[in-house]
Amino acid sequence: MSLYIRRAGIDDADAIAGWNIAMAWETESKALDPATIGRGVRAVFDEPRRGFYLIAELDGVAVGCLLVTYEWSDWRCGDFWWVQSVYVALEARRAGVFRGLYAHVKAMAGGAGAVGVRLYVETENERAQATYAGLGMERCHYYMYEAMLEA
């Protein structure tokens, strides 16, 4: 099987939105609103400062994606690249798709002068945690907090 990683284009937006819906359901049993996620995905293409998507293709068929966003670190005077919205289609799992996506992001981040690559994972998603550890990522000593704001 041939793995190819490419930068996503606006023509990929519907597939990315669908994968995000599937990922949210699989990992959190959370039903995303298709209209909202559709607008959210397209907003990344509308404003490149928000980040970019990568698409993984196996033998010419798109089978997964991820989103990269940026976080400025004044402590390190550089950007962290955050990997988000990771999804690999069921039929393509265990075929090295995420490994390829991650290697691609890491190389791009290094070439761009980023100071590191980060991601967050659900506390119960032990399979994903094992995958990330297997790629050499380490669990941070930070907890994540949030305060959602009314729309």
Automatic annotation (TrEMBL):
A GO molecular-function descriptor: acyltransferase activity, transferring groups other than amino-acyl groups
Cross-referenced InterPro entries: Acyl_CoA_acyltransferase (IPR016181), GNAT_dom (IPR000182)
SUPFAM superfamilies cross-referenced by the UniProt entry: Acyl-CoA N-acyltransferases (Nat)
Pfam name, any one: Acetyltransf_1
Name this polypeptide is given: GNAT family N-acetyltransferase
Species of provenance: Luteibacter rhizovicinus DSM 16549
Origin organism lineage: Bacteria, Pseudomonadati, Pseudomonadota, Gammaproteobacteria, Lysobacterales
